[in-house]
Amino acid sequence: MRKVLGRNYLYQKPYLAVLQALIDAPGYLVFGSGKKFPAEVKKILVSRIDHLGDVFIASSILPHLKRAYPNASIHFMAGEWAWGYLRSNTFLDRVLIYNSFRLNRSGGLIKNAAKAFSGFVRNIWEMRKERYDLTIDLRAYPFNSIPLMFLGGGGYRVGFATGGFGFLLNRRVPYRSGVHEIEHLADILGSVGVNVSWTDLKPEFNLSKTSDKECTRILDGLGVAAGEPFVLIHTGSGNPSKLWKKEEWQKLVSSITRGCGVKVVAYDTVYNDLRDCIRLPSLISLDLFAAAAKKASVFIGLDSLPAHLAASFSTPTVVVWCGINDSNQWRPIGEHVSVVKRAVDCSPCFRKNGCPSMDCMDISAGDVAQDAVRFLDIQRPPNVVPFDPSTRVRGKREPKRRGQWKSKIRRDL
């Protein structure tokens, strides 16, 4: 049964495994794939009703779909929280909004249930009007959009069966354990005749010139001149269980500011009172934050969209990793990406709300600072002597040399 259902995630909540088995077992007996791939594809619907970071990663398939089917109209179904990103994607002709009940974090129980039901019915109507030739569901977890695609009359349906309702798919793509999510997306593309290597898949954010200029103006007003190196940090996460301790954030910020002489720009909507840093406005738009992530010398954040966003711009990225998820599957893709995590026996646990102790987040600011300094060292001017943390002996004062990175970083930690 474990091999059929395919995901350890289900076994953290046994009722999900039982529920899925009760639905899928008779479904496979009644339904059969029995449908050929369409000879002509004029309309494609891609669905990823998931968190914004998941939608961002999933968007990496869009340019390859468009290249393979240049005359096809491509639509994307996602939650309204992804609208700000998807609306600027040049490969999409339309965005359908569906706020899944399990993923919607705004409003109360009744309001969310009503919104999910009305969205489900509305999208069935819209999909039947569009008459899609090809529908692709990218969610491998329970509560996917496969039933919605089926009821909406989606032509040829492709997706993973591990989240349930696989009997409604015309082509079921095997879900391989222990590989990055990008590789799963490459498998999906291969199943519809688009053969690309996973190394060719990269999510992109279309940054407008207006946002870039406005971000430069904002940073200049905050005291960061154009071209001046700075470290950008983001303390938030959509999942509160992934948050890092405030005292560690403070140690990290103070160490970089005082120890390296580099300004730290913080988008801090969690604690709002970190010292020794420059604060971005709390209501800054996604476009402006993306522009700041592109300009930053180093980005430091949690397992969330901002880390993937920074890495997509090739900004050196340090991720404070929570043990809920598997870093091998979800880490940001990029040449200069460092994942700082604590090895514990129970990680990854795949528990949405973690556990009471959250030992996996007992990560020291020193470990994070070490990787940040390494990335800063890569970008240092030729006439600056690099800071070597291994030469620092706690309790002794070292002679200061002109142009050297300040050696206080280890002492502050």
Notes on the structure:
With 413 residues, the chain is an alpha/beta fold. The chain folds into two domains: 2-200, Rossmann fold; 209-412, Glycogen Phosphorylase B (Rossmann fold, 3-Layer(aba) Sandwich). It is 35% helix and 12% strand. The protein has a six-stranded parallel sheet with strand order 3-2-1-4-5-6, sandwiched between helices. It has a six-stranded parallel sheet with strand order 9-8-7-10-11-12, with helices on both faces. β4 (134-137), α7 and β5 (156-159) form a beta-alpha-beta unit.
Based on DSSP secondary structure assignment, what is the total number of beta strands?
12
Based on the structure given, which CATH architecture of the largest domain is correct? 3-Layer(aba) Sandwich
Top-tier CATH class of the largest domain? Alpha Beta
Q: Compute the gyration radius: what is it? A: 23 Å
**Domains (count):** 2
List the secondary-structure elements in sequence, H or E.
HHEHHEHEHEHEEHHEHEEHEHEHEHH
Mean pLDDT across every amino acid position:
87
Q: In whole angstroms, how far apart are the ends?
A: 49 Å
Order of strands, widest sheet: 3-2-1-4-5-6
**Topology-level CATH name of the largest domain:** Rossmann fold
For the biggest sheet, the summary is:
6 strands, parallel
Shape: globular
Provide the β-strand percentage band: 5-15%
Helicity, as a percent range: 25-40%
The assigned structural class equals alpha/beta
Low-confidence parts, pLDDT < 50 over ≥5 residues?
A: 1-6, 383-413
